């Protein structure tokens, strides 16, 4: 059902439909090692044979899909996620904004525990930083317990869930310590408003950073994250933040995403017409 919900039909003249599939999540995070994953991936493999166009939001997602499911018989296209023009409007930090901000679902996959351990490590080095953790999720209680165990109750605020732009006012440096991702909107949105971003080298995040991907961190590494936070606080945002904002404004916009989708549909129609002619 989840896979079928992401199958789109684009109707042509004569009642025919162009069958378009936009896989998200399942192909990346499921495995054939368990019954649910086996069922999910088997359905995706079945859909693959009936698809005229497969749309992916990142080169990473496309590569994982082809590894786990196979190469689409029709056209496969990558169209990156995009942000709206109004999302480039700066957000002023609150007067008491935290040094570090996390925004996302509170689950282990997002690396919130790695961030907490990094803050504890900085404290052990004599550097006290404050963090605002925005979001909710199944592992919230565990993260709160970990912060308490590390005696960080006064340094870490669990602010609950709220819209991203409201959350951006709560911190001066966005941390994205994920263990796995595809092409996360929170990275695009944070860059768009001008926040410095520290992120891990997972999924499609290197596609966002482009030539600056060397600054990305290994996942599951509190020491590397602590070092990066300390260095960024010491030297400030620098030119990298402005460079990333320019890159996102040129390549990761809603208008670019729309143009990419329409172009992919047109190419799929041409391919189908050519195949029908033969």
Brief synopsis:
The chain has 278 residues and is α/β, with parallel strands linked by helices. Helices cover 44% and strands 13% of the residues.
Reconstruct the topology from this structure.
Elements: E1 7-11, E2 17-21, H1 26-29, H2 35-48, E3 53-56, H3 59-68, E4 75-78, E5 100-103, H4 112-124, E6 131-134, H5 140-149, E7 156-160, H6 164-168, E8 174-176, H7 185-192, E9 197-199, H8 205-209, H9 222-235, H10 238-251, H11 254-277
Parallel strand pairs: 2-3, 3-4, 5-6, 6-7, 8-9
Antiparallel strand pairs: 1-2
Helix pairs in contact: 4-9
Helix content: 40-55%
**Count of individual helical segments:** 11
Average pLDDT score: 90
Radius of gyration: 21 Å
Give an account of the 3D structure.
This protein has 278 residues and is of the alpha/beta class. Helix content is 44%, strand content 13%. Helix 4 packs across helix 9. The longest helix is centred in the last third of the chain and has 24 residues, at 254-277.
Give descriptors for this structure.
single chain; 278 residues; alpha/beta; 4-stranded mixed sheet; 3-stranded parallel sheet; 11 helices; disordered N terminus
């Amino acid at each position: 059902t989840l896979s079928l919900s992401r199958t789109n039909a684009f109707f042509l003249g004569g009642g025919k439909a162009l069958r378009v599939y936009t896989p998200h999540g399942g192909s990346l995070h499921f495995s054939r090692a368990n019954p649910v994953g086996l069922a999910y991936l088997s359905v995706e493999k079945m859909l693959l044979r009936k698809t005229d166009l497969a749309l992916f939001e990142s080169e990473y997602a496309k590569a994982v899909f082809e590894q786990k499911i196979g190469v689409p018989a029709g056209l496969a296209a990558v169209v990156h996620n995009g942000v709206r023009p109004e999302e480039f409007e700066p957000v002023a930090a609150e007067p008491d904004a935290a040094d570090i901000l996390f925004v996302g679902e509170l689950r282990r996959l997002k690396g919130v525990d790695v961030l907490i351990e990094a803050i504890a490590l900085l404290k052990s080095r004599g550097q006290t930083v404050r963090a605002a953790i925005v979001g909710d999720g199944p592992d919230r209680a565990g993260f709160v317990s970990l912060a308490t165990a590390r005696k960080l109750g006064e340094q870490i605020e669990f602010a609950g869930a709220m819209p991203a732009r409201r959350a951006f006012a709560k911190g001066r440096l966005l941390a994205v310590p994920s263990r796995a991702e595809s092409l996360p909107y929170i990275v695009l949105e944070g860059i768009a408003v001008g926040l410095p971003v520290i992120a891990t080298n997972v999924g499609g995040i290197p596609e966002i950073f482009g030539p600056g991907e060397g600054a990305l961190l290994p996942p599951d590494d509190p020491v590397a994250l602590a070092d990066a936070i300390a260095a960024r606080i010491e030297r400030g945002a620098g030119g990298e933040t402005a460079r990333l904002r320019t890159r996102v404004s040129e390549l990761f916009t809603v208008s670019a995403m729309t143009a990419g989708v329409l172009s992919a549909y047109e190419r799929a129609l041409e391919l189908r017409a050519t195949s029908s002619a033969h």
